[in-house]
Amino acid sequence: MPDPGGPTTAENLSKEAVRFYREQGYVHIPRVLSETEVTAFRAACEEVLEKEGREIWGAGEDEVQVHYVAQAWQKHPELRSLVLHPEISGIALRLAGAPLRVYSSDILVKEPKRTLPTLVHDDETGLPLNELSATLTAWIALTDVPVERGCMSYVPGSHLRAREDRQEHMTSFAEFRDLADVWPDYPWQPRVAVPVRAGDVVFHHCRTVHMAEANTSDSVRMAHGVVYMDADATYRPGVQDGHLSRLSPGDPLEGELFPLVTAGTRQ
Ligand SMILES: O=C(O)CCC(=O)C(=O)O
Ligand SMILES: [Fe+3]
């Protein structure tokens, strides 16, 4: 895909990038954040990590895939402005081609030398939501992430696979099925590793199969994952839905905890 060279904005995002995303289920958008923004957002993530502590994605302290802080955007004003960043959310809107709301944001850390690969999954399985069609994740790099530091990899076109090859939902982690069980063709699919520089963003559809490498480098990998959901998504009891406990099944997710993303407005 031609690279325009300067910063990528919601306005100058190419039609090729949108087409690539719709066909492949992911797209790497270079230079969305400036160096100054990366420094500020990374500092905010470090403050939240320090203050809130972090949870483990993985089997235990010796088998960490990722350290994370959930709902991070509600824990620091700077991170609220990251999830509502006009270019990131504006690009998400153009890729999705449908109205979106912020669902969640996670700080995603892989410590050097001691983190395992992130397991193969798609995001739909773990989202406690109905009515997903355009829902996507913006994976925002706040450090350089070459392959050796734990970059993301994607199975191109996997968001378009048949329903019988997907685990659409789970109500507990015990239900989680290995992807090769769910999708017998998975082991023969190509995977594309996407190394990124700080300030780049990779977007992926909620059904796109993805994973991340281990961090075998000497320094930390810091990223921020923002899930932008279909604006009319409703609650479907599932995993990691403690923050939705005031909702009943089928309720819309609205209001200030799930802000609508609007093109071109700084909020
Ligand atoms: O950061 C990682 O290693 C995994 C992140 C992920 O799965 C996601 O953002 O959907
Ligand atoms: Fe994911």
UniProtKB/TrEMBL annotation:
UniProt keyword Flavoprotein, yes or no: no
GO molecular function list: 2-oxoglutarate-dependent dioxygenase activity; iron ion binding
Name assigned to this protein: Phytanoyl-CoA dioxygenase family protein
Entry binding sites for Fe(3+): 121, 123, 210
Residues at which 2-oxoglutarate binds: 118, 139, 204, 221
PANTHER family xref list: ECTOINE DIOXYGENASE (PTHR20883:SF48), PHYTANOYL-COA DIOXYGENASE DOMAIN CONTAINING 1 (PTHR20883)
Entry keywords, A to Z: Dioxygenase, Metal-binding, Oxidoreductase
